[in-house]
Structures are given as structure tokens and as C-alpha cells.
Amino acid sequence: MSSTIGAILRVTTFGESHCAGVGAVLDGCPPGLALSEADIQPQLDRRRPGQSIITTPRDEKDEIQILSGVESGVTLGTPIGLFVKNREYRPGDYKEMRNIPRPSHADFTYQAKYGVRASSGGGRSSARETIGRVAAGAVAEKWLRETFGVEIVAWVSAAGKVDAADLAGKGLTRAQVDRNDVRCPDEGCAGKMMAQIIAARDEGDSLGGVVTCECRGVPAGWGEPVFDKTEALLAQAMLSIPATKGFEIGSGFAGSRMKGSEHNDAFELKDGRLGTVTNNSGGIQGGITNGESIVMRVAFKPPATIGKAQQTADFNGDSVVLEAKGRHDPCVVPRAVPIVESMCALVLADLALRQRSRMNG
What we know:
Blueprint: E1 4-5, E2 10-14, E3 21-27, H1 37-47, E4 64-66, E5 70-71, E6 74-75, E7 80-85, H2 107-114, H3 130-148, E8 151-159, E9 162-163, H4 174-177, H5 187-202, E10 209-216, H6 230-239, E11 244-249, H7 260-263, E12 267-270, E13 273-276, E14 284-285, E15 288-289, E16 294-300, E17 310-313, E18 319-322, H8 333-360
Antiparallel strand pairs: 1-2, 2-3, 3-7, 4-7, 5-6, 8-9, 8-10, 10-16, 11-16, 12-13, 14-15, 17-18
Helix pairs in contact: 1-3, 1-8, 3-8, 6-8
């Protein structure tokens, strides 16, 4: 169950970084949804390696195959098998690291938990595992968009020491986000972010960053208090993404420094519905969506695998100097954008189906 998320719409991912391939099984998708590989591939193209000078140079096309659950271009309501073949992997790059747990990586903890681990590429702890999430999320997102008009857009709002302007509520589109390689729609900051990432890469180092995500058009009433509140499930989903270290929604930690009179979202009539004047709640109150846009931020740490020499210890406890080989992102946030969007889609689609089952019950 550790590789499965969702209650009604259930996703199980499989595969390691350097095995034959990776993918997901998506169960619970409603029948009758028009679906083809062309609906899924664009998000995988945004996630794939080798897409710019600030990503890993591993050259994978990440071409999706739908193995089951679709006939004549329509979902059957049965499990949808999604698969991407690994084509360009180099286990030899990890030969020197087989006996050395990389600092802040999952080598040591996987070995401690299972007594064995994938010796190259990080195995399941690799960001390559997220291919299945993105593929399944693209399906969920299409269903949400066509059924409820939900729109999900994420972007890089910080990288290294550069913070972009707050663009939530500005109606950003993915086309605007993708105008530059760093996926920051604040053009004045994007160049600074790019320069910092390139500098870190050239030094054999890495940088962290923040992805902001906005979900627009989400109806009021989704969420399952008390333990499956919308923000609780979103937090679980986001913090399950590799390299994540923080999550906040709405006003987040800044809200803890405000007075109630400053933070409260007063109600008003909006286009014939009750809405809020401000959105410090981030679109969720009491764990239930309130009809406003859901706004969240996800913090990513600097990638653990770096080329710079590090004084550490091998599995025997002997002191060693590690200069990691392999092809790795100097900053993960540009490629994390579609992953965050996909995890949002999976959570919201599952909550929509839960609410539908309650209303129909």
C-alpha cells in the first residue's frame, strides 16, 4: 500500500530509475472519458529530463503507452495501465557509490528499511518514479476539467535566494509559465534564477526552490473531515514528492503572524454565489473547499546528489571523500511543476468522486 494513493480514484506507481520501465495503474477512473496518449504526453514532456541546460542531461523521451482500460479512445472504467520505457540509463555511473550512502539521499534509509536497495539511480527514491504520477495525474486532470471546469496551474516562485512576485490570483496560464526554462512567469526574476542555477551546476553544487500551485474552479463542498481534509490530503500528496521539505496553503506560516481581524475572509455575493473578499484560507475552510481558488506552496530542498567533493563515510563507517558521478538536476523545481499539478489533480479528482458517491448515496 505504500505505493498507492487515493480512496476511490486509486493510483499505484511502479518501477525504478534503472529498471526496464516505470509507470502506474490508475483504478477508479469513470468510464466514457475520451483518452489517448496525446492527452498525457504534454505533461510528461514538461517533466522529462534533458529539456534544457538547467536539467539533467539524461536523454529520455518518456513516451507514454496506455496498456489497458481504454478501448476505441474511451475509458472503460477498468484499471488503466500506463507505462514508460527506460531507454537511456547508465548504472555504471553509480559503481563507486554502491558502498557509499550519498549524504541526504535515501541510500542509507532504504538499506536500513529493506536490507537491500537498488544500487544505481536511487531506485524508487529517484524522481523518475514520478513519471507514473504525472501520467495518472494527466488523466485525472482531464476528467476534472471536462466535468467541473477545474484548472490547475503551477509555477516556480522561488529558486535559490531569488523570490518571485506573488502571482496567485492573476490568472496565469501554462503557456505563460513555460515561456522560460526555469518556469517562473515573473520575467524579471527568471533570469536571476537561471543564473544562480547555472552557477551552482558549474560548481558541482545544487539549489532548492519553491513551487506555487493554484487550482481554479474547484466547487465548494469537497473534502472529508476530519482526517481526510482537503489540505491534509494535499499536504500528504505534495510531501510524498521526492525532495520536498515544506508545504503551506493559503496564508501559510505568514498567517500565524496576523491578527484574526486581518486574516478572516469576509463573505460577499460573487456572480450569484457566496464567496470571500480575500483568500487567506487558500480556498479551504474546515478541511472543505469553499469555491475559491486553492493556493498552495511546496518547498524543495537542493538535490542531494552533487559533483562537489564531500567528506562522508561508507557503509562500514570508514571515512571517504565522495564526488558523485551521474547526471542530475542542479535544481529540481522547473521539472517539479507538472508533478505538483498532477498530484493536485489526483487528490481533487478522488475527493470529487467521494463527494459524488455521497450525493448519489
